[in-house]
Sequence to fold (384 residues):
Amino acid sequence: MNFDLNEEQSIIRDMARRFAAEVIAPEFQKLSTSSDVPYDILDKMADMGFMGVPFSEEYGGGGGDWVSMHLVIEEVSRADIALGTLLDVTTSVVAQEIDRFGTEAQKKQWLPDLCSGKAIGAFALTEPSSGSDAGSLKMRAELDGEEWVLEGRKQFITNVGLDNCSLVVVAARAEIEGKEQIVTFIVPKTAPGLVVGRSYDKIAFESGATNELIFDNCRIPKDSILGDPNRGFAQHLAVLETGRISIAAACVGAAQACLDHALAYAREREQFGKPIFEFQGVQFKLSDMAVKIEMARTLYLKAAWLKDEGRPHTFEAASAKLYASEILEQCASDAVQILGGNGVMEDYPVASIFRASKIMQIVEGTSEVQRIIIGRLLASGARS
Fold:
């Protein structure tokens, strides 16, 4: 059993770590308090090849693996977790679904721009009446000659408000061979009848674009179906498994940032004549944070490794997402406590991470949903 990264993985991780420290971290106050999208940073991330790490060079990707991709997400999230979740949506979910299930024509049309970062993808599944129960979605698609007509509304859609977002992967109900199915479509953002609605004000991720989508007689070509029309929902579940690993990696990066800031502060801050690091109560908090982070990192790396090996990883992905998102909140809370009054000031990143930590227990499947998934695996005997 070897826990070492290979040479390529180490190089990619170190490159992402330097980039996060030198380019993203100095902008943390702007990123955490402004609603302005950091397009300059997105362009630099694209130039570094961060969006296309796990995809074939044939389509403009880096030819790497999913362990490497998630190491990038961790390091980016160490500086700004909103940028880490952007990579989750556009790479782990949208680009992966096209790569795994798309036709050759669809891959050639969309993947090169997604891998290069020229295009950003959005994933439209959640609706006002369906969140955790994604199978109850109501949006409809009907075939009208050589076009599909989409009608409905989606909410909480990440990335779609970005100027460089050019496509949306959409789930809708459609009749296929006389039977209603949940079908997946690739919808260009410029499609007639697709309206980007209001931008949501959130407790964190201020610079992350989250909008509603309105499909009003939205017309797309007949060949816009992505993958098997009879297995659209199963496709979503497959890529969301990877999305859970990505969210776990993002949580680990943000939790590591909390430890970094809290440890540095504890060494410098003096009370009662000595650095507060020398107080056992502070050391215990820092020690617990370090152990939790290492456990969460090991979980997500195992899940990513299993994915690269082509082995089942449903349990590992759900476990990583559940544990990492919950320890992030604990680590952020402890970091705020160690920094005291400074911990609730925007001058320190732990304040914005603390706010973001609750969001991470909801996106890509709530903590409750992860426990349901794990429970079902236990009940089936898949984990014993």
About this structure: The two ends are 21 Å apart (CA to CA). The chain is about 50% helix and 15% strand.
